[in-house]
Amino acid sequence: MQQIQNKVILITGGAGFIGSNLCDYLLRYNNKVVCLDNFSTGSRANIKDLLANPNFTLLEGDIRNLADCHNAARGVDYILHQAALGSIPRSINDPITTNEVNVSGFLNMLVAARDAKVKKMVYAASSSTYGDSESLPKEENVIGKPLSPYAITKYVNELYADVFHKTYGLNTIGLRYFNVFGRNQNPNGAYAAAIPKFVMQLMNHQSPVVNGDGTNSRDFTYIDNVIQMNVLALRTEDPAAMNTVYNTAFGDRTTLNDLITSLKRCLTIFDPKIANVEVVYGNTLVGDIPHSLASIEKARERLGYNPQYSLQEGLKDAVKWYWDNLEIRTEESINK
Ligand SMILES: NC(=O)c1ccc[n+]([C@@H]2O[C@H](COP(=O)([O-])OP(=O)(O)OC[C@H]3O[C@@H](n4cnc5c(N)ncnc54)[C@H](O)[C@@H]3O)[C@@H](O)[C@H]2O)c1
User: Fold this and answer.
1) Rounded to two decimals, what is the model's pTM?
2) Ligand 1 pocket check for 157: Cβ under 6 Å
3) Which domains does the chain have, with CATH numbers?
4) At what angle are helices 223-235 and 17-27 packed, to 10 degrees?
């Protein structure tokens, strides 16, 4: 894959799971990376190895503050906007804060990108935008009604990005991420994502709690596929590929029951007792959809996307990473 090199790139949410992986990757190709984060859900542990790199600048600030956004965007070539409050349950418990960060914060970043005349802003959109649409696989132009406050915020991002292109000529690309997993994803807290939460429970010999009967399915997407999409989105100069959104996924779906079986298989290499840990089934979640599967044809055709990691391949790396790092990181998050 052709790389992005020698550019100045602002990564908002750069201390989070996806953002820190993007920081790390882009620094390897001699880019200067500016990370804007308020550490609300991200962690210093995710970027501790980057702080000594002279090409890395950490700005502690909040995207709800326009001055912080202007300050961060000054002089950059590109923005990768990852900062947001994730989690559907969090948005149901606190829709106002989710809206302030995900909508007002997003708008601030668009204004800052416009004023700084950045070449392009690539932003984290979400598969939750498909809402109650039952069609499978999900194609970008067929969406339903949102099922949660979080889903609304992510759809509003797409609408704002489109209007900023039409009215101010700002170039954007939205990446609708599907259940991303991998190194640096936080397993702790009430709003942790399924894979890191299950890994932590299994490692502690606790029963993973599956919402529903385990037949719900997701298009689990390894972080390195997401990095590839971000690089391709940054690189493209084709007008037909810009100012639109792309599914960012592997293009296959796995039930939660099969996911747990795979996780147990990967983890028993390190601890055979994990094979005996039983699953517990709980209520289905409000705002949850039964099945999710992406069509990745648009990204293949317009950006040349070619995901390299299936769920199984990604899980091997992710599980090894959790095994090597979890104890340390659990302590760090407690002491944060
Ligand atoms: N992980 C997934 O499966 C997934 C799926 C769909 C969309 N997304 C989107 O991808 C992006 C990154 O998600 P992630 O999984 O890395 O989450 P994350 O919580 O690990 O990262 C988000 C980062 O944004 C920072 N942040 C939050 N509010 C901020 C604010 N007001 N100002 C500055 N920084 C702030 C957090 O501290 C954190 O470092 C988010 O926009 C999320 O909505 C993620």
Assistant:
1) 0.97
2) no
3) 8-181+223-248 (3.40.50.720), 194-217+253-294+310-334 (3.90.25.10)
4) 60
